[in-house]
Amino acid sequence: MNTLPGIEIQSLLPEWSKAELIRYSTELVAERSDGGDVLGLLVQAAKLELMAATIKDHAKVAGLSDVLSYGKGGVSRQGVTLTTADVGVKYDYSVDPVWQRLNDDVADATAIRKQQETFLRALPYEGRMAVDELTGETYQAYPPAKSGGEGVIVKIL
Questions:
Q1: How do the domains of the chain map onto residue ranges?
Q2: Phi and psi of 131, rounded to 5°?
Q3: Residue 142 near residue 151, CB atoms below 8 Å
Q4: Averaged pLDDT of the chain
C-alpha cells in the first residue's frame, strides 16, 4: 500500500538531488516570506518532519534485511545511499580500575565545574573578587558572556 488519503508516497517528491531539494525549499520559504503564509508553511514543515522521521524509523527496521542482501556496499536509489553499520554499540569499561578512577575524577571535576558555572552566572555585571580554591589566589571574577537570540519553537500538539 503506497497511498494515504490524498498522498501517493512514491510521487510525493520528484527524484531531486540534495542540492535541488535545498534550492527548492529555500525558494519556497522566500516566496512565502514575501506576503505569503510563512507560518502555514512552517506548520506543514513540522508535520512533514514528524511524518518523515516516523516513516524513516519504521522503514529502517522493516528494510534492514533488504539492505543487508546488497552486501557491504549497500544500495543507492534516487540519489540516496542505503548501507548498514553497527548501531547502538556500547562498551562497559567499569571493570578496569584505572578507567574507574579516571571516570570518578571526571565526575568530580564536572560537579565542581557546574558549581563554578552557577557561581559565575549569579555574579553582578561588575564582577567581584573570588578565591581560586586550588591555588589560594584571589582574582576578579565576572559573569559569563551570554549569547543567543530569539527563535520560533515548533511543537505538534
A1: 11-82, 97-141
A2: -115, 130
A3: no
A4: 92
